[in-house]
Amino acid sequence: MTTTRPEAEPAADLPADLAADLAADPARAYARAMGLQRAGRFDEALAIYQRLLAAGPSAEVHFQAARIYIDVGRYPAAIAQARAAVEARPAEPAVWQIWAEAVALDASPVTEAELLAGLRRAPLPPAARVALQDRFAGKRPAPKLPPPLRARMNRLMEALAAGRPAEAEAGALALLKQDPKLAPAANLLAAARGAMGARDAAIQAFAQAAKLDATDPQPFDNMALLLTQAGRDDEAQAMLRRAVVAGPAYVPALVRLAGLLNRHGRHEAALPYAAKAAKLEPRNALAQMVLGAVQTRLRDFAAAEAAFGRAMKLDPKRPGPIEQRAQALARLDRDAEALDLYDRALALDPDHAASVAGKASVLQTLGRFDEAQALFRRAIDLDPRNGEILRGYLASHKVTAGDPLLDRMIATFEDPALPEAQRSSFGFSIVKALEDMKAYDRVFPYLRAANDIAHAADPYDMDLRRREVAAVKQSLAGHDWTRGVGGTDAFAPIFVTGMPRSGTTLVEQIIASHSRVTGAGEANVAASMATRLVFDRDGVRALGSVPDAEIAAFGRDYADEMRRRFPGALQVTDKSIQTYMYLGLMKLALPNARFVVVRRDPRDNLLSIYRNKFLDGTHGYSTSLRDLGEYYRTFVEMIEFWRAEMPGGFHEIQYETLVADPEAETRALIAACGLEWEDACLSFHQTSRKIDTLSVFQARQPISTASLAAWRRYEPHLGELFEALGDLCPKD
User: Fold this and answer.
1) Second label for 732, Cα 20 to 30 Å away, from 70, 323, 544, 597?
2) pTM
3) How far is residue 460's CA from residue 623's CA, in Å, rounded to a whole number?
4) What pLDDT, on the 0 to 100 scale, is given for residue 10?
């Protein structure tokens, strides 16, 4: 789950000498804050600015605070500071510029409308006011060039379009020699060098073009594309933000920034840009596809299905949008429609590997393993260097000694031309194959390499996680969780939660084998709603400040969504992992809800996470043994928090105990869920319900002890994990 996480707040206490400066010489304190800001010590600088503002508004201080909030991506806070700066000095163009910059990056129609309304009344020179208004309207005056110069530029652009980049480069260089400040010529030079494959030279030329005209979004956008191709995604993001500031309505930059943020797991941050692009150009199929991709990562599958449906109508002859819509339908458990769409995509292109693999994946989740395996093998033949297709195949295929697939996987993994993301996927696949063959002594080099690649591409911020946990505890501590708030008394979901790979799928499968219960899988509805209730755009909300009516609405909205997804279901299970963060809040909103927390020996649990690849942008802690141990500590911290806050509020089940004594533990589990006993709960593996998790194959097998104490096979490699677990590491 992606959450809106709190940024670090400024320290409340200041050094004695700084406190003295604030009292005796505010100008000196301001200068000191500016130095801290230039050094990137934003919290310390903000602490000073806030103390200075406590004495009264100051356009300069508000301006600098807005600048910091923009730099750390807190755009609503930046807008508030910029607005205050405008109120203090309304005739100053610079404060309007910083407000416009924050609004452009916020990409919200509400804050944009507020800015434009203010601009209409602003005591600014008409040219400055019109320039800002035109920027948001997507209007940009054409460069004023003499007719002969414009004609030369047009001829050079025609040469570039006709595939003669060397001619365009030579002409652009000649123009720049005559006038080094001619921004269109610098832009043309960059485009020509890019077309010639001279990426670094093209990046430099685009940088020069952007320097010559910072109001043109195209050089920033073009430079970002080249930086992305070079694997320099952080720099690309910075350039795309500058493109959005220069052109808030420039759709290519909005689409590219949304896609880049989404790929790096920042789905919430990506959504405003994707939504704005799709609204500005509703007939832009790419914008709709990116919006659908972001909504998919946010697990808003209904919205994603609609976006992909629009893209499909705009581009009906291409299988890609059809395949993406089919994926969304499958996530909505509309499997028959999904399979029909996969067939439609394959009718357009029988060799479309993604559609072949997608259809295989749906069949796999439905337990139709033989059909799925045949399609997976065809998809691998069509796209043999796609590690994700291979991983899907291996989820329900056991590799045996002598299988030539292993040697092919290793050869591909060792190919230096293989992209790193695919190398990581192949590494995880090799690990699965070696474990199938019980060749445990060969596993860890591939396992370490696969995770190290993923970690380098997207390192996890454990400090941010700790702040998130602290903020949730601060918001939710000290309430009466038994009182309820009404409105959902007839709805009684059963939430199954815990760490990934702890046995939550098995436990949900057992409960969902009951005749009254429908398994919803990882619906990710309630936890997402709870996150939005606790964290708003400006930070953390204290639960005491949230009206009961809003909490009741949360419960009703959840119940309505689950009834829409599962019409006719008497009860549903929901095994969304992050539910454990908000147990009490969910109890308030859903008084008849039951909660089951699944625990597992952390050594086995965390190793199992480390051995599996998750969806990009999710479970970022999974790629580092140290992060895994430290993340587990925050999980236990939250469980203990709720144990103290709502004693007896959840049923806890230990995976090892369940495996050792299935009937006794299952009977206790079913009773804790408020259900009458049914023997079918002991035959859970025979159910035909859909299973859409990493445990797609295992959950259809009888309970086994095979995975107990698996950590011992790799004990020499797990020292970093044990160290991070500390006192939570079992002492056996």
Assistant:
1) 597
2) 0.78
3) 9
4) 40
